[in-house]
Design a protein that fits this description.
This protein is α/β, with parallel strands linked by helices. It is built from 18 helices and 22 strands. The strands form seven sheets. Strands 2-20-8-1-7-5-6 form a seven-stranded mixed sheet, sandwiched between helices. Strands 13-14-16-15 form a four-stranded antiparallel sheet, with helices on one face. Strands 17-10-18 form a three-stranded mixed sheet. Pfam families: Phosphodiest. This is Alkaline phosphatase family protein. GO terms for molecular function: hydrolase activity. It comes from Haloarchaeobius amylolyticus.
Length: about 525
């Protein structure tokens, strides 16, 4: 160890970690270093936010604010009916390492989602999820230095590898190696390393217990080596949400809204944004996410859809023949999309733009480019939709949603207008909420496992009062807690509070991020990871 190391607080992000996942690993002594933090420190459940998904939850964690303030609600940002992939310029509040920079505290940040393109601060940053495979880092050229020092460093693991557990574990290993290299070089007081593979494996192969355990063992090894090399005074472990199986139904909200008269459809148009279309038709080619030029086959498929031969009808026929899975594995997403019956955003009164947003957007006149709902009717339309959605029950007679509320119930701040108008929270997160149009409103969940609201937090160290506990910890509490361990005041606009186990350092006002929004995330690595996780349909 370098006796001159000044690492005061290490924040370890473990995506999707929760008691359901960790308990069997602790029981079998698979992750002794991680378990020791829980055993010797203080720990508990960490409530996630709405919506509890990666692209929105991590900015909430590292800003301490709800999406109505920081502005990121999912993997897509919308401007009217146009859309693109979110990046760090969509995060309109300061990250905790940027606040630390204002107090002359140096930070090293590795693999944290939605941090590309990086903003300048005292320290180093390698972006994580939603960044390109070869992203710009801070400072310039540092990724090349990391690769020279440790060998290959990938933002995204190789999903085509024969041994997925090994591929993901290799990616985890490089997170730890990169962090240690940068910590040696920059000697930070704050460090933040995030492990994404712990989430990805459950989207890819939730039944692969051997791969899951291999990934977590590697996380534990890297954590152990970081602790040994840099001896942080405090360690905080946090997840962005939990993970678990879907035991309910898939509910296709746009199909319900179509039958209720709110959604209008068209055949063969560009229609709703689907991540698969972005993946196959844009990002693989390195083009902007909203650029798209159809090939002859897709134009033919679109023409067939206009006369009624839609992808949905073809899919139903293939399903009856038992060929649907085989065809789906090889059919280009653009071809399927071109032939689909799709939501006509411009003519619909209300719709689901992306299932990740967990809600319905009203096509409001004066706000949307071709809004059809007059402002005078907004409240009435929203109330009718809320009442209708609250009444929806599954084929088993159980409520689909545990909460259907106006967006003000969850989001507040200057970015709230970008949120859905109606937030729909599935009951116990047992139901898969889909934006797709099918012939039926209900079906089996498209994914067997997905996110749950209850994540986890643990803290141990010199500035942690282990007896005080973590209380009713919330995702928003992590940023002010980290700042408190470094004696730095939290932003007075933060929605969270320091956990009971740390001594608060007060609050002060910090400026919001006012830079221009930009888009430059088109990359094969981005499309591959997001598509594999199934975040967008």
């Amino acid at each position: 160890m370098d006796d001159g190391s000044s690492l005061q607080t290490l924040l370890v992000g473990i995506d999707a970690a929760c008691d359901r996942v960790l308990a069997p690993l602790f029981e079998d002594n698979e992750v002794p270093t991680l378990e020791s933090i829980y055993r010797t420190g203080t720990s508990g459940a960490l409530e996630s936010q709405i919506p509890p998904w990666t692209a929105s939850a991590w900015p909430s964690l590292y800003t301490g604010m709800n999406p109505g303030k920081h502005g990121v609600y999912g993997f897509l940002s919308f401007d009217g009916y146009d859309w693109d992939v979110v990046n760090a310029t969509d995060v309109r509040e300061r990250a905790l390492w940027e606040l630390l920079d204002r107090h002359d505290v140096t930070s090293v940040v590795v693999n944290v989602p939605v941090t590309y393109p990086p903003r300048a601060f005292d320290g180093a940053l390698i972006p994580g999820y939603t960044a390109p495979e070869d992203p710009d880092c801070h400072p310039d050229g540092v990724l090349e230095d990391v690769r020279d020092a440790i060998g290959e460093y990938r933002v995204y693991p190789d999903d085509d590898a024969t041994d997925l557990g090994q591929s993901y574990s290799d990616c985890v290993r490089t997170r730890g190696e990169a962090f240690r290299y940068l910590a040696d070089r920059f000697d930070p007081e704050f460090g933040f390393v995030e492990f994404q593979a712990t989430d990805s494996i459950f989207h890819k192969r939730p039944e692969d217990d051997a791969a899951i355990r291999a990934i977590y063992r590697e996380v534990d090894r890297q954590l152990d080596e970081i602790l040994e090399a840099h001896e942080p005074a405090n360690v905080i472990v946090a997840s962005d949400h939990g993970m678990g199986p879907y035991d309910g139904h898939e509910f296709r909200v746009n199909e319900y809204l179509r039958e209720a008269g709110f959604v209008e459809t068209k055949r063969g148009g560009s229609g709703m944004p689907t991540w698969a279309t972005v993946r196959d038709d844009n990002l693989k080619e390195g083009k902007d996410a909203t650029e798209y030029e159809r090939g002859a086959t897709e134009r033919a498929m679109a023409a067939a859809a206009k006369v009624g031969l839609t992808s949905q009808r073809l899919g139903a026929a293939l399903e009856r023949l038992g060929l649907d899975d085989l065809v789906a594995a090889y059919a280009p997403a653009g071809l399927v999309s071109a032939g689909a019956t799709q939501v006509d955003f411009h003519d619909s009164a209300a719709y689901v733009r992306s299932r990740i947003e967990l809600g319905v957007r009203i096509n409001l006149e004066g706000r949307e480019p071709d809004g059809v709902v007059p402002p005078a009717e907004y409240d009435d339309v929203r109330e009718r939709l809320i009442d209708a959605l609250r009444a929806v029950t599954t084929p088993d007679g159980e409520p689909v949603f545990e909460a259907v509320r106006p967006r003000e119930g969850y989001f507040h701040g200057p970015e709230s207008d970008h949120a859905v108008d109606i937030v729909t929270v599935p009951a116990d997160f047992e139901h898969f909420i889909s934006a797709t149009l099918r012939d039926e409103q209900f079906g089996p969940p498209s994914e067997p496992w997905n996110h749950k609201l209850e994540g986890t937090v643990a803290a141990a160290g010199d500035d942690i009062d282990h007896a005080a506990g973590v209380g009713d910890a919330h995702l928003f509490d992590i940023a002010p807690t980290v700042l408190a361990t470094l004696g730095v005041p939290a932003d007075e606009r933060m929605d969270g509070e320091p956990l009971p186990c740390v001594e608060a350092a007060g609050t002060r006002q910090y400026p919001r991020f006012e830079g221009d929004r930009s888009v430059d995330t088109a990359d094969e690595g981005v499309e591959k990871r997001l598509a594999d996780l199934g975040y967008l349909e």
